Amino acid sequence: MNPAPRLEALGLWARRGAETVLSDVSLELRRGELVLLQGPNGSGKSTLLETLAGLIRPAAGEILLDGESIAGLGADRVARRGLALVHQERHLFGTLSVRDNLALADFGRRPTAGMDSVDATLESFGLERFAATPAGLLSGGEQRLVALARGLRARPLVALLDEPLAALAGGLRDHVLKGVRGMADGGTSVLVVEHDGERVGQYADRSLMLRNSTITEAVLPGGLR
Ligand SMILES: Nc1ncnc2c1ncn2[C@@H]1O[C@H](COP(=O)(O)OP(=O)(O)O)[C@@H](O)[C@H]1O
Ligand SMILES: [Mg+2]
To answer: pTM for the whole thing?
Structure first.
């Protein structure tokens, strides 16, 4: 693994309305590592991901992607540089097959980036058996898995996942995490916000805690690595 930092946030400040949610938050994500981010409700985890992804303009601070500033660029341009924020709710085309939904992954991504084949994506997320099924016939959890696989198919440099396991059944949780681990092993740096830290900890390299605007290195819950 190349230890050079892929994503660095330095002294970030961010507001939501009148409220200062992030004050002087710093964080570093190295290439190909999968990092769990936890913290109490309302501590600013989602705000941090949205700020890194350019959806919220930081009031102060710097964000570097492979050493280049992306702070204030705007979500569109940040996405095209290779940083993907994967939301929970991603709409699928209900009448199209899972395969066809995955094939639609390539808009708004790095123009130069390679893309995994649809077959490889189906396999790494355990979706082979649904390939020909219209997405609208899958359960809510299965649809979320397809949406996640679609978001990651373009192999972003950095993937920020906000509670990807919420409301997923246990078996699907492991499919998601195996797929995400495979992405990290392929070089994508992944930051996962998740309540089910025990489960994520089995796949993650490191664990961080956001509390009172301070990020600290935490013990990896249930970690085996
Ligand atoms: N859309 C919003 N508008 C205004 N304030 C918000 C919004 N979303 C979150 N907040 C506030 O920002 C703070 C951090 O929220 P959030 O980033 O969602 O935390 P977390 O994801 O850790 O639960 C909370 O005090 C919350 O009330
Ligand atoms: Mg949140």
So the answer is: 0.88
The domain over range 31-55+73-218 is classified in CATH as 3.40.50.300 = yes
The residue whose C-alpha atom lies closest to atom 6 belonging to ligand 1 is 16
Rounded to whole angstroms, what are the CA distances from 86 to 91, 209, 212, 216? 12, 20, 25, 24
R_g of the chain computed on alpha carbons: 17
Per-residue pLDDT tens for 156-214? 899 999 998 887 888 888 888 988 998 899 899 999 999 888 999 999 999 999 999 88
Atom of ligand 1 nearest to the CA of 47: 17
